[in-house]
Amino acid sequence: LPTLQWRCSKKPILISIPLLSDMKVILLLLCLIAVASLEDTCTTSHCLSNTRFVLLGSLGDLAKKYLWEALRVNSALYPNLEVFGASRDVPSKGVPKLQDILHNHDNGLFTATYVQLKTDEHFQEFCRGITNTLLIFYLSIPPSAYVGTSSKISQFCPGNQIRVAYEKPFGYDTKSAQELFSQINGYFRPEQIFLIDHYLGKSLTQAIIPFRRSHTELESLLGADHVTQVEVRLLEALDCEGRAAYYDGSGVVRDMLQNHATELLTLLLTDIQGDIPQGKLEVLRSLQVPNSHQVVLGQYRSYVSHVGSPSNTPTFAKVLLTSDLPRWKGVSLILTSGKSQKQEEKSLRVTFKNGDELKFQFKPIRITVNDKDVVRAEDLLSSSISSNSYITLIKAVLDGDQTLLPNPKSVEVSWKLWDHVVAMATRNSSIIIYDDNTDMKITTTGRLLTVRGSAPHGSDGMKFFAHALRVSAPEDQLYEHLVRDLMGFIKTSPPDQDFHLGLSGGTSVLGIYKHLLLADVPWHRMHVWQVDERCDLRHGNRLHLQEYLLSFVPIPPENVHLMPVSQEGCGDPSLYSHQLNSIPPLDYVILGVGTDGHTASEFPGSRDLRDGGVIKVIEKEGIVSPRRMTMTLKYLNSCQQKAIIVVGEAKKSILQRIREKEELPVNELIVYNLVWYIEEGLV
Questions:
Q1: Which residues share a beta bridge with 450?
Q2: Residue among 290, 297, 336 at smallest CA distance from 314
Q3: Is the Cβ–Cβ distance between 330 and 313 less than 8 Å?
Q4: Using CA of residue 243, residue 249, residue 255, residue 257, what is the dihedral sign?
Q5: Do residues 10 and 46 make contact, with C-beta atoms less than 8 angstroms apart?
Q6: What is the pLDDT of residues 81-103, one digit of tens each?
Q7: Can you give the pLDDT at residue 266?
Q8: β-bridge partners, 464
Q9: Distance of CA 143 to the CA centre of its chain
Q10: What single string gives the DSSP state of each residue in 49-100?
Q11: What's the rounded mean pLDDT across residues 212-218?
Q12: 167, 196 in Cβ contact below 8 A?
């Protein structure tokens, strides 16, 4: 029988053709055409006659430390591999530099050729005449050069199979990431784009999915029925001295949480039965944007001196996330990372409801249950040739394997999750200063994170009062500062969602109204709520609210929520409670404090001070309008952010009593999302 042979490198396809009817011949020829087309799409490094690996940024620190070693190791596995070191330096400078680097990685067999790739002409000359070649460009260059370099590769290296690998970061927020990928996608197909996150090349990371697949009994326990908490910890004892200028442009959220920590979390949560990249994407889409109760940001005390100027950049973050996937609904998902910590720890922990703990530890590499090894370390290490994670990642690029790498869609979804936390970091009032080489004491209570103990004074001018952040300024500047901070919260909230603002009564808040009128408030999506009200409309808080604020702003009438108080007195508090329960806790609440330590209309000596409801009616003898309706302290503590404004000499003595932690209503407020705005000179 006649035999046809299609050859793809060393993998021939042999097909015998017997004498068949015309119809069968036609069908067979169609099959042969489909098989033959495989030659055009065969892009592995084994399929083509030659593979050229071009390392751009070949003289940089990352290349010196990791990439050249990874290329040397992989070169032994791919006999058709040619390696080129590229940079912008002219050959007279670049060649000796590359020779010095390669001398440290020389095993007698590994060689690389230097090439200058800077201008259009350089790329055109390099790619001229190259055919039937897999061209891999590894971009170890500043992200700002990604698009321009991609354009040159696409324009001057046609007619070859091309792959391009990009080092993180991929943008600095959702918008920049979308712009980056939109431009890159204009040059290359998805299967040609490889996003490199070095944590995904680590031996332990590579072992997570195989471990879950091989330990079916443990895998069956991973879910909300048995797990109470999952935590990713990436803590470093080192500070930022010597590289603070670079770090200050990113901070811990961009540098660690948005990429490394999030990728590790998705590997623990994804469904291992299906497509892994798609499963990780589904996990990402299920994660809920954290509120201010669920984020703690810190900065080690010496950071400002390392940067050389005041900075709002966080060097520590602990974030509590939740997922709406049925498998993980109700489980606390915690991501923690920080510089200048007491002890270094890089691990993933799964805490079960019975108290057991499954732990994946990076250094030394271990997988344990209750600190007893369940996998031998040598078995874990065998999945990688060395501790250099780039060996695994470069091999993945050579093989065209994107399975465990990030993809543009997952990066975009991740940024949408973390944009809000990055925005929180831009506000001074969101960052707590911690001592160098110490661990911040943070407890998890339900869906809340709480900083325990007193916080130290910030070296950048931030101050603290009664364990909460404090802003001090002359009275008018104080109001201006508070409204500016409020506007920061409004601007970082989702623009397509309503923003709910609670305003207390009393004279302290009146000065705020003027500055609200001057600010660019998006009144069309604002909702205003009363924190408390007197059951006597002749002295009602709403009079000032309407006269000095609401009558001047274009707020929709249905967005003004007044407490049910009439000429006859207080109405049914459950009506207001029902309205509040129909929405998430208020985004921002502005309170005052009385000379007796009351806040809202929660007064000292009340028997139901810790009432568990939302709204209540109280009676207090000896005050104007002794009967009042008020939000409870418990509800106020559930709100996203709280501010207390204190002005006037009459408040000096109560501030001293508050500082001494007397049993006062205002001291019942949780402090980690509270900022005091105190007139200068009162404390």
A1: 443
A2: 297
A3: no
A4: positive
A5: yes
A6: 999 999 999 999 999 999 999 88
A7: 97
A8: 469
A9: 19
A10: SEEEEEEETTTSHHIIIIIHHHHHHHHTT-TTEEEEEEESS-HHHHHHHHHH
A11: 93
A12: yes
pLDDT over 50 (residue 28) = yes
Contacts for 514 with CB less than 8 Å, ≥ 6 apart = 479, 548
Which residue, 586, 584, 605, is CA-closest to 594? 605
Bridge partners (DSSP) of residue 204 are none
Contact between 206 and 387 under an 8 Å Cβ cutoff? The reply is no
CA distance 391 to 381: 13
pLDDT in tens, 304-352: 999 988 888 999 999 999 999 999 998 999 999 999 999 999 999 999 9
Contact 619, 601 (CB under 8 A): no
List the one residue out of 423, 470, 457 whose CA is nearest residue 304: 457
Cα–Cα dist 53/60, whole Å: 17
Q: Which two tokens stand for residue 56?
A: 């751009």
pLDDT at position 461 is 37
Report the chain's mean pLDDT, rounded to a whole number. Answer: 85
Residue 551, classed as helix, strand or coil, is helix
By the 10 Å C-beta count (0-12 exposed, 13-18 middle, 19+ buried), 419 is classed as buried
Give the C-alpha separation, 402 to 44, whole Å.
12
pLDDT digits (tens, 9 = 90+) for 513-567: 988 998 999 999 999 999 999 988 877 889 889 888 998 999 999 999 999 998 8
Most confident of 37-41, 120-124, 447-451: 120-124
**How far apart are alpha carbons 82 and 543 in whole angstroms?**
80
How far apart CA 453 and CA 439 sit, in angstroms, is: 12
Taking a C-beta distance cutoff of 8 angstroms, is the pair 529, 563 a contact?
no
Q: Looking at residue 566, what is its pLDDT?
A: 85
Q: Are 521 and 513 in contact (CB under 8 A)?
A: no
10, two tokens: 């060393």
Check if the beta carbon of residue 86 is closer than 8 Å to that of residue 115.
yes
Question: Alpha carbon of 253 to those of 235, 241, 407, 558: distances in Å?
Answer: 13, 18, 19, 38
The CA distance from 226 to 331, in Å, is 9
In this predicted structure, what is the pLDDT of residue 567?
Answer: 80
pLDDT for 494:
82
- Reported as a single tens digit per residue, the pLDDT across 344-383 is 999 999 999 999 999 999 988 999 999 999 887 666 654 4
* b/e per residue 297-332 (b: at least 16 CB within 10 A): bbbbbbbbebbeeebbbbbbbbbbbbbebebbeebb
Helix (H, G, I), strand (E, B) or coil at 372: strand
- Crossing angle of helices 475-492 and 408-425, rounded to 10°: 170
